[in-house]
């Protein structure tokens, strides 16, 4: 074998580095694909038995949307339900429907999560003596129901406090007041909006970062005590919050979402909830990174989009008001 020239040695070293890098990326890609397959596909065949956590499940914001869908799915999987929400009529209707449809027991607790710390002793008292296995911290609100500048909401002082109380305080306080057995499951509903800063959804997205970070830290803190904390970060689900946008290739119905998200319990503690939203998350990270979202160029488009969306929502609301007349 002859002695390598300088150039040959450099090109062989570069070739070796390239090969190792490609191998590492390949292995990483294979790990992601296997992880995704396990969490979103295998999980639908081998579901975790949710009754192992205890007899009762508590769901906050349980009368409509994702919370109601979680309550239905938990009842279908054999749990009794404690429904917490703001409107007593809606609570009684939901409880009756769950009892007759799934034959499970229910309790209701009427509280308004915007009211701050005073409501938690009431919740704690009503939960006493029940064997609670699952808590779904679902309740959440956006301050305007559409994309707006931070201070362009009616009564910003009240809205800011309400959103913080409802989206953040509820998650931390309910974790504290719901009695934990040695084996329990806490599901915290965060949002894709919490994975990157979101101009024109500023406060909402900031509250969801809080939920995500709190959940992920609690996962590590309480794992050894047998308590599972799962953080779920959906993209768009058709609910009142999203003005019941049509279900389609990018939008899940609440019931399909809750079904798939509950399948992921035991497979992942930090999940988009369903395959469709996991793929959207990856696409958003690649094609719409933080620096682009925050650029002035993008802000102009977000502003235009917000305007046309607002007009569409107003027209939709006018149409449904006309229908109701
Ligand atoms: N929909 C989405 O696309 C989406 C995406 C990502 C994350 N999320 C998150 O998913 C969760 C549920 O959202 P959703 O779309 O299902 O909302 P939704 O359809 O507006 O339902 C909200 C539920 O919470 C209750 N609620 C609202 N404000 C309350 C308050 N102050 N006190 C007590 N209960 C209150 C409502 O009860 P009443 O009817 O009695 O008011 C209702 O049962 C939220 O945390 C949201 O941030 C939603």
Automatic annotation (TrEMBL):
Entry keyword set: Lipid biosynthesis, Lipid metabolism, Membrane, NADP, Oxidoreductase, Steroid biosynthesis, Transmembrane, Transmembrane helix
GO molecular function per UniProt: oxidoreductase activity
Residue stretches spanning the membrane: 12-34
Pfam families: adh_short (PF00106)
Listed GO biological process terms: steroid biosynthetic process
SUPFAM superfamilies linked to this entry: NAD(P)-binding Rossmann-fold domains
Entry GO terms, CC: endoplasmic reticulum
InterPro entries in UniProt: NAD(P)-bd_dom_sf, SDR_fam, VLCFA-Steroid_DH
Family the entry assigns: Belongs to the short-chain dehydrogenases/reductases (SDR) family.
Name assigned to this protein: Hydroxysteroid (20-beta) dehydrogenase 2
Annotated organism of origin: Scleropages formosus (Asian bonytongue)
Gene: hsd20b2
